[in-house]
Design goal:
- The chain has 215 residues and is an alpha/beta fold.
- It is built from 8 helices and 5 strands.
- The protein has one domain: Rossmann fold (3-Layer(aba) Sandwich), CATH 3.40.50.
- Helix content is 56%, strand content 13%.
- Bound molecules: thymidine-5'-diphosphate.
- The site of thymidine-5'-diphosphate has 14 residues, from helix 4.
Length: 215
């Protein structure tokens, strides 16, 4: 392989990203493809601290605009120190979320503004974008059902996502935002029906990954 490839996964909380990233990771290993698995926020030591601020200190009452900058600070550090070096070394970078989340969550669903968040994301990512983005699409009613199951079976979750308890209306706005982004970037963002079995979702994802790395 002469160049790296950057693949990101997006979806509402509970759409099955973690499972799909693990399945892709296994496939990459089986095919001897050099890769890293990373995430936003939290792909660097600074990012771990930013996660703590965002998700574990509700008393800070972080405003949507301040939150926007925290996600972008995480991203700037992540691109400079993790993503770009790995791509330069010819690796496949698999990221649990990237800037489409900022555009959908902060820019559109939280009302900070799509254009502003796109411009900030462009700066933080130094003009780079994923080669391929999977939006795992699931009806918000099914997402909350799955999230409840996760909470019941594990007894407790390590940390409550900032938006897990958000209303179904917020989840619908988010889904619409992601679908709007997918329509704006149809070559980069692939919408995958996440209501299928995990294996069917995996196969749909693999078809795109294979055509990317053989392109
Ligand atoms: P996380 O615990 O990583 O869960 P998930 O499995 O849903 O990714 O939580 C990340 C949360 O942060 C998730 O609710 C989406 C949100 N987020 C933003 O609001 N803006 C962003 O730019 C990013 C990267 C994530």
């Amino acid at each position: 392989m002469t160049r790296g490839y950057f693949i990101s996964f997006e979806g509402l909380d509970g759409a099955g990203k973690t499972t799909q990233i693990s399945l892709l990771e296994r496939w990459l290993q089986e095919h001897g493809i050099d890769y890293i698995r990373t995430r936003e926020p939290g792909g660097t030591a600074l990012g771990v601290e930013i996660r703590r601020l965002l998700f574990q200190q509700p008393e800070l009452a972080i405003t949507p605009l301040a939150e926007t900058f925290l996600f972008q600070a995480d991203r700037a550090q992540h691109f400079e120190t993790v993503v770009l070096p790995a791509l330069a070394a010819g690796k496949v970078v698999v990221s649990d979320r990237c800037f489409d989340s900022s555009i959908a969550y902060q820019g559109i669903a939280q009302g900070v503004g799509r254009d502003l968040v796109e411009r900030l994301s462009h700066l933080a990512a130094q003009g780079h974008a994923p080669d391929l983005t999977f939006f795992l699409d699931l009806d918000p009613a099914l997402v909350s059902a799955r999230t409840d199951v996760t909470q019941d079976s594990s007894g407790q979750r390590e940390q409550q996502s900032r938006f897990d308890s958000a209303s179904e209306d917020f989840q619908r706005r988010l889904r619409d935002a992601f679908l709007f982004l997918a329509a704006s970037y149809p070559l980069r963002i692939q919408v995958i029906d996440a209501a299928q079995t995990p294996e069917a979702v995996h196969q749909a994802i693999l078809a795109h990954v294979i055509s990317l790395i053989h392109s």
